[in-house]
Description:
By secondary structure, the protein is an all-alpha fold. It contains seven helices and no strands. Helices cover 69% and strands 0% of the residues.
Amino acid sequence: MNKKELLGKRIRELRKRKGINQEKLAELINVDPTTISNIENGKNYPSLINLENLLEVLGCSFIDAFDFEHKNSNKDLLVQINTKLKNNPDRIEDFYKIVTALTK
């Protein structure tokens, strides 16, 4: 998944958390509803002014908006996990304990 799609998914997540629909969000930041749809679907990046307005309405910071590392695909997450394990072989047992505890 590319960064544009990840940002769109994050904006959608934040909007839903706020309990407003795309039409209401579009109205609040004075854009067409298709603009919100295109952002959330990863077709377009928001302009800087639209991003600032989105974040203000959604009550979050730039850091919150770009906190989407957890939204990577399972394949990407497995690659990242394997890389961390390879770089920290002394922590494999700890990792195993955590995974076992989470999957009981």
